[in-house]
Backbone:
């Protein structure tokens, strides 16, 4: 286990402590509360080819936990799997379509319930722009500019750099605040119900992506 303060690579981001585990959450951290921000890092964007390397999480109190997978070992994460399957835990993602699909595929999870996606929410609420990336949302809701340089680094490395850990943490520590802001916007525009209907359909979309149907419109005549 690693537990230390990190040097943030992004200006104005408060120092955060994190815990890094290999392969799974420990038993005493299997419960991170009722709302968790989650992101993943992988070797690429092809779910069937590019293996899951890291799952980073942040609870409502700012507790940050990272689970790193050794690519030379099989995936066996019963505590993390139970957390993902817990219907009573809200799971906040940005671009949930990718994160949910890759977690389902590599951890062999049939269904991840109670998902909130900030990217879908942004597209429904922020119709005044076509910019819905996480960097844009963080800047709009927190006035902080993220450094995305580590996005395409080697996440399968046996040891993560401080810069990679900074990047991974910054991808989750703002999601609760962004979600709260987007919920207010969706409520004001009368689009909150349709947003949750979209979230409910994500499981099917992810299964289609896992089944290599993501690039085609199977509903088209």
Residues:
């Amino acid at each position: 286990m690693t537990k230390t303060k990190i040097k943030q690579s992004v200006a104005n981001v408060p120092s955060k402590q994190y815990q890094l585990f290999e392969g799974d959450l420990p038993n005493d951290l299997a419960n991170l509360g009722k709302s968790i921000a989650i992101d993943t890092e992988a070797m690429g964007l092809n779910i069937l080819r590019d293996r899951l390397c890291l799952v980073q999480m942040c609870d409502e109190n700012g507790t940050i936990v990272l689970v790193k997978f050794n690519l030379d070992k099989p995936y066996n994460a019963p505590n993390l799997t139970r957390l993902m399957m817990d219907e009573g835990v809200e799971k906040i993602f940005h671009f949930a379509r990718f994160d949910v699909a890759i977690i389902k595929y590599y951890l062999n999870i049939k269904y991840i319930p109670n998902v909130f996606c900030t990217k879908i929410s942004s597209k429904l609420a922020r119709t005044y722009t076509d910019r819905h990336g996480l960097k844009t949302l963080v800047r709009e809701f927190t006035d902080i500019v993220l450094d995305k340089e580590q996005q395409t680094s080697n996440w399968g490395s046996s040891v993560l750099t401080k810069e990679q850990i900074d990047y991974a943490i910054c991808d989750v520590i703002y999601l609760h605040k962004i979600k709260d802001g987007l919920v207010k916007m969706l409520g004001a525009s009368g689009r909150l119900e349709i947003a949750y209907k979209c979230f409910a359909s994500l499981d099917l979309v992810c299964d289609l992506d896992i089944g290599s149907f993501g690039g085609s419109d199977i509903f088209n005549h």
Remarks:
- Strands lie at 2-5, 17-22, 35-42, 52-59, 64-68, 90-93, 115-117.
- The first helix runs from residue 78 to 85.
- Helices lie at 78-85, 96-107, 118-125, 134-142, 162-170, 175-189, 192-210.
